[in-house]
């Protein structure tokens, strides 16, 4: 255990915890899709979906569907950090963007994670899939890898790496760092599977960054192998008799969009639709494994996405292209997309099934966030955790079990964009905090969509929307509601200054955090296309 416990516990933060008399703690499976849109799942569509998602729909039918769930950020790495720690990633050194290829570990050595918490309470813990929280790679000359150096010649792939899943609470790991980041090979526990020896030059068949590669490596083979490993982990863990935690971090439908041959042509939304269909099939394989092993009734299964859907790019067509070409709305009418502070950047599908505890067919409009997972997991096992842990995490058991608290679980939720900008949501109101001269509109948003929606009041020094009346964030009320702007701005500043958004002693952020950061210059088309 990396942290010294205080008297703070899950029971002190919120009143609901799993009864001590429960015969056996539940297995917990958290399935995280990558760049999946709110409008990509059938259970969320008012009309029949063009992409069949029967397995995710089944979880919703047999459990609960959240209509107002949010990723902690609108890009990948910060969401994964918050999911693991119960702490917003903007409190860390990652103030914008994602962990770069070959980037150093984002999780500090002393950072307490949900995997560590569950392992300390008797769980077998496993991560299958995408990591993207940084790895400390061993080098042949013993010096830390420098930015831009030739990793093929200096990284020593015969030695174990540090800072990965095994150093942060997981007993087992199999996956990739990022599919389109080198090294192009599988990772198992703390080593590469084989020695990547081929130099990839980049921008070929979806490999948009140069780096060492395993002979015969194919992107299309990643997801099928991850699914085999995830099913095997469930089966092996079930036979052990111990409770288990599986964090299944899918690499789909993130670019590169590479549906396996047996899924090609299964939808009317091109390769993207087929890749989402394959993603849903992977979920179904997990559900079937639970049934085969006889453990489905005592397993909490959660399915969601790490952020909203990809926009567009030179080599990776995105959501606006799908609207025009296939009439498929990954955004489901919401404004924005991945990287944005608008709703489509972070409002994501979120469904959960736990037959022993969650009533089938439940629907909740409670505002929740992935950062809440750690406090919820702690409550399930009755775990204590330190006062400096899970500082932004709230226990969601009251919602899952349909217990009435008489108040929202979350006072407010902070959103963070790919460019490092802030927004805060409280009740029906969301404030997008930026200063005069900043522009929250993204270059990828086409003119036809701007004209179609008729957005108003772009010249104000911030954006304020009432989501109950204006879910598509069309009418900016910043100038007409100064009292709400002040209230939300003050609360956001409080959350930043106190190092937490939950009750408890103030904590220090890892680095100074500024709400009024100027937006970075928009990248050109070539640079945009190369991003993760």
How does this structure look, described?
The longest helix is centred in the middle third of the chain and has 23 residues, at 270-292. Helix 6 packs parallel to helix 7 (270-292). This protein has 2 domains: 10-407, Alkaline Phosphatase, subunit A; 415-529, Arylsulfatase, C-terminal domain, CATH 3.30.1120. By secondary structure, it is an alpha/beta fold. The radius of gyration is 22 Å and the shape is globular. The chain is 24% helix and 15% strand. It has helices at 10-13, 54-62, 76-85, 114-120, 151-154, 222-240, 270-292, 319-326, 373-381, 397-400, 447-453, 482-498, 525-529, and strands at residues 27-33, 64-70, 124-130, 172-176, 187-188, 191-192, 198-200, 211-213, 244-249, 299-305, 347-353, 362-364, 368-369, 413-416, 422-426, 429-433, 463-466. It has 13 helices and 17 strands.
Give a brief rundown of this model.
The protein is of the alpha/beta class and 532 residues long.
Fold blueprint:
Elements: H1 10-13, E1 27-33, H2 54-62, E2 64-70, H3 76-85, H4 114-120, E3 124-130, H5 151-154, E4 172-176, E5 187-188, E6 191-192, E7 198-200, E8 211-213, H6 222-240, E9 244-249, H7 270-292, E10 299-305, H8 319-326, E11 347-353, E12 362-364, E13 368-369, H9 373-381, H10 397-400, E14 413-416, E15 422-426, E16 429-433, H11 447-453, E17 463-466, H12 482-498, H13 525-529
Parallel strand pairs: 1-9, 1-10, 2-12, 2-13, 3-4, 3-9
Antiparallel strand pairs: 2-11, 4-5, 5-6, 7-8, 10-11, 14-15, 15-16, 16-17
Helix pairs in contact: 6-7
């Amino acid at each position: 255990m990396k942290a010294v416990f205080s008297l703070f516990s899950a029971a002190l933060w919120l009143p609901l915890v799993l009864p001590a008399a429960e015969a056996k703690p539940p297995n917990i499976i958290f399935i995280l899709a990558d760049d999946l849109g709110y409008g990509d799942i059938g259970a969320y569509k008012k009309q029949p979906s063009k992409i069949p998602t029967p397995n995710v729909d089944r979880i919703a039918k047999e459990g609960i569907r959240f209509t107002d769930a949010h990723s902690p950020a609108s890009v990948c790495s910060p969401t994964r950090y918050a999911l693991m720690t119960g702490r917003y990633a903007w409190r860390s050194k990652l103030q914008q963007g994602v962990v770069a290829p070959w980037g150093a570990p984002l999780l500090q050595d002393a950072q307490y994670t949900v995997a560590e918490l569950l392992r300390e309470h008797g769980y077998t813990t496993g991560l299958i899939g995408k990591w993207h929280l940084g790895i400390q790679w061993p080098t042949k000359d013993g010096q830390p890898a420098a930015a831009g150096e030739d990793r093929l010649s200096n990284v020593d792939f015969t030695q174990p790496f540090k800072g990965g899943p095994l150093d942060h609470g997981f007993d087992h790991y199999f996956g990739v760092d990022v599919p389109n980041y080198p090294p192009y090979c599988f990772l198992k526990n703390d080593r590469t599977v084989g020695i990547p020896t081929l130099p990839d030059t980049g921008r070929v068949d979806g490999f948009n960054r140069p780096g060492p590669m395993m002979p015969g490596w194919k992107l299309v083979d990643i997801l099928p192998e991850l699914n085999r490993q995830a099913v095997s982990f469930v089966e092996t863990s079930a036979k052990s008799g111990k409770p288990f935690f599986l964090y299944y971090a899918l690499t789909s439908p993130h670019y590169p969009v590479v549906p396996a041959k047996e899924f090609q042509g299964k939808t009317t939304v091109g390769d993207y639709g087929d890749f989402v269909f394959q993603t849903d099939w992977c979920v179904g394989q997990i559900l079937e494994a639970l049934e085969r092993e006889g453990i489905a009734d005592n397993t909490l299964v959660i399915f969601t996405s790490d952020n909203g859907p990809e926009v567009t790019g030179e080599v990776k067509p995105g959501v606006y292209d799908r609207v025009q070409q296939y009439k498929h709305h990954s955004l489901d009418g919401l404004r924005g997309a991945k990287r944005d502070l608008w709703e489509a950047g972070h409002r994501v599908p979120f469904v959960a099934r736990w037959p022993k505890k969650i009533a089938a067919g439940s629907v909740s409009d409670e505002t929740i966030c992935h950062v809440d997972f750690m406090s919820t997991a702690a409550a399930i096992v009755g775990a204590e955790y330190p006062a400096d842990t899970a500082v932004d995490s709230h226990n969601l058991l009251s919602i899952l079990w349909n217990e009435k608290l008489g108040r929202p679980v979350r006072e407010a939720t902070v959103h963070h964009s790919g460019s490092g900008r802030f927004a805060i949501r409280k009740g029906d109101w969301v404030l997008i905090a930026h200063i005069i001269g900043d522009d929250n509109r993204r270059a990828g948003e086409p003119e036809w969509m701007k004209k179609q929606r008729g957005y108003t009041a772009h010249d104000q020094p911030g954006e304020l929307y009432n989501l109950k009346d204006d879910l598509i964030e069309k009418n900016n009320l910043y100038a007409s509601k100064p009292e709400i702007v002040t209230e939300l701005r003050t609360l956001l500043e409080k959350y930043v200054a106190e190092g937490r958004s939950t009750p408890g002693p103030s904590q220090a952020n890892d680095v100074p955090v500024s709400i009024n950061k100027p937006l970075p210059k928009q990248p050109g088309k070539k640079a945009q296309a190369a991003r993760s």
